[in-house]
């Protein structure tokens, strides 16, 4: 989803097929085990499963396009493999206008 996208339960907009929308959200929720970067947008879109509107379906399609372009991202679980975890955190939560390098902390476990 584009940062700053406002999704609401407004009366405006056309209703879409709720069964299809729930199916898409369910499939995205299944991906969360290997794609933690999708947790926030999928949880946000899950709020609108009762009466999904066209704007909500557009956001789901945007996430699907993002997944299509980032297939190589995610967590890969291997039966026999080393443990190499690298994570990043934005400690300012985007509230600062200073360069991002000053606010990103790197956490990692290697050779565990």
Summarize the structure.
This protein is of the alpha+beta class. Helix content is 34%, strand content 12%.
Overall mean confidence score, pLDDT: 77
Structural class: alpha+beta
Order of helices and strands: HHHEE
The radius of gyration is 17 Å
Question: What's the count of strands?
Answer: 2
Name some characteristics of this structure.
34% helix, Reverse transcriptase, RNA-dependent DNA polymerase, disordered C terminus, single chain, alpha+beta, 112 residues, DNA/RNA_pol_sf
Can you characterise this structure?
With 112 residues, the chain is of the alpha+beta class. The chain has one domain. The chain is 34% helix and 12% strand. It has three helices and two strands. The chain has helices at 18-31, 39-46, 54-69, and strands at residues 84-90, 104-110. It has a two-stranded antiparallel ribbon with strand order 1-2. Helix 1 (18-31) runs antiparallel to helix 2 (39-46). The model is unreliable at 100-112 (pLDDT under 50).
